[in-house]
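Prompt: Have a read of the protein record below and flag anything odd:
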Amino acid sequence: MKRMAIGKQFALKAVIILSLGLIVEGGVSGLLCAPAQAEQAEQAAQGQNEHAGHGGHGMQNCPKEAAPLPDALKGWTGPTSVTAAATAGELDGVKLTAGKAVAAQLRSTADMHYAVRPEQPGGKVSSGGMFAFDVPAAGTYRVMLGSRAWLDVVQDGKTIVSSGHNRGPACSGIGKMVDFPLVAGRAVIEVSGSGKPDMTLMVIPTP
């Protein structure tokens, strides 16, 4: 009888130790999982914030009657329809005038033969185009695009290094504005890597 009692005590202690082990193991596991869960929550919150911020930069939150554009940009609201050039031989038919916007039908990247190969020519499913701009006098000129694309300006067979980058006024529809120092004479504006088949663009002299 005494041996049976001792055996039961050993069995009871074993059950208690095993139970405590499971509790400890669960607690440690929970502690190890907590940082991972917190990190996932933080990443999710960051993604939501980035998405909300991205939406705020677009036209979704604009009032029905947006503030009028400055005089230098008023030509943006009445663009003329054109088809972008795919070759240098087509450029004379696509000339831009300072202060007057165009709503351009772009060309398939596969059909483009740029004056100078763009730094980012885009993939087969993207669009691009070229536009001639006869610079009236030496100075800095601002090229404005209505949607996302790569932009180059070429003069005398060389790509011009830009001198400034800006966003367009809020709710204007102008996506970006890039400044280029140009000399008098023919310049070629090259648009490449556009995810859309059309685009509004305009050139103005900087103040």
